[in-house]
Amino acid sequence: MKIIRFLKDNHEKTGLLEDDHIIELSCSAIEAINSKAINKLKKNVNYKVEDVKVIPPVLPSKIVCVGLNYRDHAAELNMELPEEPIIFMKPPTSVSGHLDNVIYPASSNQVDFEGELGIVLSKEAKNVKSEDAADYIGGYAALNDVTARDLQRKDGQWTRAKSFDTFCPIGPCIETDLDPMNQNISLKLNGEFKQKSNTKNMIFNIYELVEFISNIMTLKPGDVIATGTPPGVGPMNIGDTVEVEIEEIGILKNFIKKS
């Protein structure tokens, strides 16, 4: 099922996305992905998607991101495969939603796209084993790890380059039922494919990532793990439209605007 958050008449709501309409639910997104009886949460209210404003499907306390994690991306860069995941973080203030603007900061001259699969945690996770990781995952979303590449090169570490407001679009929904090991993932810039791969090309799979990260820090319900980007990363310009598509989730679409 696809869990979506949206605004209607300035009220935040949670819903079940079915084709082109939304069934309102009487709970939060995290409660919905944890529910064993979703039908009991349905309200007798439906909306057309075009009649509401879609907002980020989750409000994480943190976004933990994985660096080099696709074999085809490593081959593109002529880099050796890492022995363990390379991680960094984006702040919750970087989160934006489907159809939101990504603001191009005045301090950067190169802002890049990085289409990714995002893991959404459903409950607190600490020292989780990979074989148990699925029990802590509520679902998956499309994500764009927007990066000020020139600032990343300048600083040497990645915090500033990854952390600008709007630099982490997530959405359009949380898909609770998919095979994360075999999902086509792509990114289009102004309608042209720039990235194409499959999650089966990950170096560290999503369960291994949950184990690795939860042995470092406690993951809270609603936290997001960005699982790395496939080959083809490149720059965006003001006025561009960027779309991340994951096979069974849908399209996350954003617009690049001047600050």
Give the topology, please.
Layout: E1 2-8, E2 11-18, E3 21-25, H1 29-34, E4 42-48, E5 53-55, E6 63-66, H2 71-77, E7 87-90, E8 95-96, E9 101-104, E10 111-113, E11 115-121, E12 137-144, E13 147-148, H3 149-155, H4 159-162, E14 168-175, E15 184-189, E16 192-198, H5 206-214, E17 224-226, E18 234-236, E19 241-246, E20 250-258
Parallel strand pairs: 6-17, 8-14, 9-20
Antiparallel strand pairs: 1-2, 1-5, 1-14, 2-3, 3-4, 6-7, 10-13, 10-18, 11-12, 11-17, 12-14, 15-16, 15-19, 19-20
Write up what this structure looks like.
This protein is mostly beta strands. The protein is built from 5 helices and 20 strands.
Summary of the model, kept short:
With 259 residues, the chain is mainly β. The protein is 13% helix and 41% strand.
What are its keywords?
twelve-stranded mixed beta sheet; globular; 259 residues; single chain; SH3 type barrels; mainly beta; 20 strands; 13% helix; five-stranded mixed beta sheet; Fumarylacetoacetate hydrolase, domain 2
